[in-house]
Amino acid sequence: MAPRRRLAAFCTLWVLLPVAAGGEKTAPPLPLAGPVGDLVDEYRAASGADVAVHVVRMTDGKALCDIRSGELLIPASNQKILTSAVALKRLGRDFRFRTRLVMIGEDLVVVGDGDPTTGDARLAAAREETIYAAFDRWAAALKKKGVSRVAGDLVVRAGIFQPPHCHPDWPAGQRGRWYSAPVAGVNFADNCIDVGFTVSGKEVRAVVSPRSRFLAVESHVRLGKRHLWTGRFDEVGRRLTLSGTVTRATASPLPVAAPSPPMLFGCVLADVLARAGIALDGAIVVSTDPPAGGEKDAQPVAVETMELGAVLYRANKQSLNMMAECLFLRSAVADGKPATWRKAAEAARRVLVSDYGLAGDSFSVADGSGYSRNNRVSPAALTALLRALAGEPHFFRSLPVSGEDGSLRNRLRGPVCRGRIRAKTGYIARVSALSGYILDRRGKAAMAFSILLNGSTRGKGYSAHRLQEAICQALIGALDAPATTAPATTPPARRLSPRSGP
After folding, report:
1. Helix (H, G, I), strand (E, B) or coil at 234
2. Which of 312, 327, 343 is the last residue of a domain?
3. Looking at residue 30, which CATH number applies to its domain?
4. For the chain, what is the radius of gyration of the CA atoms?
5. What is residue 48's DSSP assignment?
């Protein structure tokens, strides 16, 4: 019998013996240390990765498993748990983003509030709207006021967040990817252009969304033997050049991140206004002026609002980085002063220490999404936050459900785990994380857990996902086991064989 197996087998005996052979008192082993420890030891032996785990009981915070729980590791998208906590504390659960459209002299001015949801396809579909619905309402409001021509400029004021739009830590070579989409005081369609292709004979035509006559798309994509194409924007963000080859028409478009969210916002708005018969005589101008400046003579036209809960849902359920970053930055806006990446990190740290009681050495904040590799957090800090956030309905509902939705839709689908876990996933190169709640049979959070892994996430006969699933199965098995005083009755955890999970 292996040492860990022997430990689990004699766990009951050790609980009944409070005094060690030498006469000194020893703390009883934690109930789940044996079965979870076996899995972690096996994974570390195979991969050499750093793995830390913490599991606590929700009712009283009692630790059920502690494997290097104080170690600081890169959390990837588990950083969004910290960001959610900060946003709920700084903004409040009833907070609503407010994006205003006003006339100042002859200029039509958009005053941004950091809302990341304008034009978001998933939220629009849930409301049975198009991605252009907000702009359609603005066009209708202008026409109601008798405006058929804007004699001045369309000014997009996004200064509530100060540039740069991308965090300095993010990899420069991945700036065109959807998960690297920049953020600003105004945002549209997750700040991406969806690109697809139709093929007729040898002719290849690009199809893009959102549409705008003010956004130039130049395609050099042709039919070829490889499906490999790229899209690049100019520095201004008004011209997208496509190159490469495709082998067929695309069933689903792929997103290309736009470098200037305010310019994308302005180009699409100007096009919607033109389609509604409202001409623009001037230019599309992007401004970084703070939102409170220069509005003495502003004439209100329309306001679009969005509740905090919808943003948390998109940030956590589908792990959308740009939503989390807008929450991160908006939480740092105070006294009319715009946010910067540095100010947001400082504000987050203050809230996590003063309002949630985290030790200052248990985490380090760089960004809000977890895309930066300079974020650090301990599993114990995450479980403490999870316990504190369990009563926040916006947060609880935002977490993916195992085997059912969000980033867990295709994971933890087996009969033991399906529907029994609400958790935040996390992945960047050589980092895998899963932190959240084990639910009892009534759907109530019974345990908070955090599994952080830095190092090899997949190899011959092992994967981080299988480790996480095996640990979750062990936790659910322990929760569902008949109540006894003997922790040895905890069902043995699965081995991490190649067949043990997807």
Report:
1. coil
2. 312
3. 3.30.450.330
4. 26
5. -
Mapping DSSP to helix (H, G, I), strand (E, B) and coil, where does residue 69 land? coil
In a domain, 159, yes or no: yes
Distance CA 353, CA 357 (A): 5
- Any alpha helices (H) in 145-184, and if so which ranges? none
Cα–Cα distance for residue pair 301/99, rounded to 1 Å: 11
* H or E segment and range at residue 110: strand 107-111
Contact by Cβ (8 Å): 84, 312 = yes
Q: Cis bond leading into 164, ω under 30°?
A: yes
The full length of the chain comes to 502
Q: Mark whether 411 and 294 lie in a shared domain.
A: no
Indicate whether 306 and 424 sit together in one domain.
no
At position 472, the amino acid (one-letter code) is C
Can you list the positions of beta strands (E) in 151-215?
Answer: 154-157, 192-200, 203-209
Same-domain pairing of 141 and 32: no
Task: Let me know whether 123 and 244 are in one domain.
Answer: yes
pLDDT tens digit at each of 502 positions of the chain: 443 333 233 233 223 223 333 444 455 667 788 889 999 999 999 999 999 999 999 999 999 999 999 999 999 999 999 999 999 999 999 999 999 999 999 999 999 999 999 999 999 999 999 999 999 999 999 999 999 999 999 999 999 999 999 999 999 999 999 999 999 999 999 999 999 999 999 999 999 999 999 999 999 999 999 999 999 999 999 999 999 999 999 989 999 999 999 999 999 999 999 999 999 999 999 999 887 655 778 999 999 999 999 999 999 999 999 999 999 999 999 988 999 999 999 999 999 999 999 999 999 999 999 999 999 999 999 999 999 999 999 999 999 999 999 999 999 999 999 999 999 999 999 999 999 999 999 999 999 999 999 999 999 999 999 999 999 999 999 999 986 544 443 444 444 433 333 3
Instruction: State which residues form the domain around 126.
Output: 96-312
Do 347 and 386 form a contact (C-beta atoms < 8 A)? no
